[in-house]
Amino acid sequence: MSLVRRSNVFDPFSMDLWDPFDNMFRCIVPSASSSDSETAAFANVRIDWKETPEAHVFKADLPGVKKEEVKVEVEDGNVLVISGQRSREEEDKNDKWHRVERSSGQFTRRFRLPENAKTEEVKAALENGVLTVTVPKAEVKKPEVKSIQISG
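That's the SHSP domain-containing protein sequence above. Prediction below.
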């Protein structure tokens, strides 16, 4: 599975597009560089986004990633950016590896936040390999109704 990155943050359908044909050719002709496949494997960090009455809550599974290896930022006033890197495990020349399935490399995910997001009050916490980012919502102002007296 491969993601095609687009740079237009104003189009919600332009980011993180899955290209079903990308891996088809990699199976036939493997890449000469293993670091590209390692980065691609970790690039697809799974993130849930739910909206509660009080906030937008993002949860990302980041097992084995330290707090220092993750960045949470707000770009252009309303784009939440979650990025980071999982370091590769140190290899000892005496070790004999039978299987390597855990991925390493960099990842970046971007989410365009709605207008009611209070981007100046974003909070993030990393516990037990799960990053939780909370973006509070601004209170919805109820329209003011003013009664007009009818003369006559």
